[in-house]
Each structure stands twice: as C-alpha cells, then as structure tokens.
Amino acid sequence: MISKEQFNKEIKGIITNAIREDVGDGDHSSLACIPASAQGKAKLLVKDKGIIAGIEFAKQVFAYVDADMKVETLIEDGSKVKYGDIAFYVEGASQSILKAERLVLNAMQRMSAIATKTRQFVDLLEGTETKILDTRKTTPGIRALEKWAVKIGGGENHRFALYDMIMLKDNHIDFAGGVAKAINLTKQYLSDTNRDLKIIVEARNLEEIKEILDAGGVYRILIDNFNYEDTRKAVKLIGDQCLTESSGGINESTLRKYAECGVDYISSGALTHSVYNMDLSLKAV
C-alpha cells in the first residue's frame, strides 16, 4: 500500500474535489434563508445496523469547510451500530453544517456499507489463518475512502493502484509471451529503473504455478478461479516459497471453504463494488 503521507494527500484531494463539485460558487439554498451569524447543532443519526465507518473522515470534512466547527464523537469507527444510535454531534455555523452535510453522508453511508460487508467476511474467516483483501474494483475518485472502509471493517488492503505493486495477470502474461518471460522481464525492469516493488503473479493452472516458482522472485501467487481440490494442490506445491491468494467469484458461501484450503489471502471485489449504502441522516437538534 501507499505511504500514510500519500494516503492523506488522497483524502484531502477527495474532500477538495467533492466540495468543489457540490458547492460551486455557493450553497444558495442556505445563503438565501439562513443568516451567516446563525449557529446550529446537528446529530449523525443511524437508521440501519452494521459497522459504522467514516467518522474520522467526517471530522476532516467539517474542518475543511469551517475550522471553527466542533465535533463530539459518541461512537468510534469500526463499532457495531443499530437503528437510533447517534454517532456524533457537530456544532457551529448553520451554513457550514449544511455545506458539509451531503459529502459527510454520501461518504459515511458508502464507507459503512463496505465496512459492514468486510466484517461479515472477516467473521466467516474466524478460526482460520486467512485474511480478506480488497481489490482495485473501486469507485473512481474515491478509492482511498473505500479502502479505508475495508480496513475499518477488519480487512486488509491489496495494492492501492497500478504504481505501488507489480501484478502480472492473464493479459500481461499473454502479451509478454508466457508467465516465465513476463516475470523475467519484470525483474529486469525493476532492476533497470531502480524500483523496489513486490511482484504478484496470477496463475491459471498448476503448470503455471510451477513456472512461476521456477522463475522465482515472486512475493505472492494469485491462485485464480481454481476449484477447492486444485487450490489445495497449489498451496501444497507452493509451500513456504511465497504467499498465496485465492480469487475469482468467491462469495459468502464459498469463502471459508477456500480459506480451509490453506491460502494466506482471499481477495474480493465484492467488498467495494457490491454494497448497499447504510441509512444515515444528519439532523438538526
């Protein structure tokens, strides 16, 4: 994953762009009927159940919109919530609260949904050594938020983007002329450009796993779309030569069975691309 500094930069960029997109030259609804001097207070009301996420992000949004706003946190990110819970109170200029409201809700509703789904997967893996990973199947422009939510839910982040890890998938392998050639060219590229990036390679069958192991220098092998029996064979074949990861349509009903095959990680795009937003409201008090 990227550095904390780069991650924070991504978050700031999301806030800046989202406020630009939503506010433009002014929140004219609020400007028209609420005096600039008016002070107000609002609560973040939970109208659903699951894992809350995005509270720390909300604080950053409020601070960006108006540094004088104050937030009283009642529930921390990663906590279980139910209908009627109040996550926090925010107090300050009424215009500022309204300016920040939609970004806070949009982000928290989606982040909470992702954290909730991730926690469900984590709970299904309890008792195994396998960890759940996210993917790059994220919403363009808000990847940092979605990966943050996965962490809050108890999952692990895969690579952040194309630049922080090498991942050789089927198309790379085919375009390069085979898995061994793709790996060797990659190692040469990293040497020539003086880059220190981990290499993950996707395997489509047991023969490709053997080729990957013979080539060497790989951090993790992605055992893609294997059945249970072949996954167990792959894990045994790889041993402790590198880490293992299962992927490819794995869902709640098959997750634990793949974990019991002995893989180190299971990756799932569903954590971020197939969720329903948690129902949250920001209500004046």
Question: Beta-strand level of the residues, as a percent range?
Answer: 15-25%
Helix count equals 11
Low-confidence spans: pLDDT under 50, at least 5 residues?
A: none
Radius of gyration: 22 Å
Question: What is the chains' assembly state?
Answer: single chain
Largest beta sheet: strand ordering: 6-11-10-9-8-7
Number of strands: 12
Describe the largest sheet. Answer: 6 strands, parallel
Order of helices and strands: HHEEHEEEHEHEHHEHEHEHEHE
Q: Roughly what percent helix?
A: 40-55%
Mean pLDDT: 97
What is the distance, rounded to the nearest whole angstrom, between the alpha carbons of the first and last residues?
Answer: 40 Å
- Which structural class best describes the helix and strand composition? alpha/beta
Shape: elongated
Describe this structure as you would to a colleague.
The chain is an alpha/beta fold. The protein contains eleven helices and twelve strands. The longest helix is centred in the middle third of the chain and has 31 residues, at 94-124. The mean pLDDT is 97.
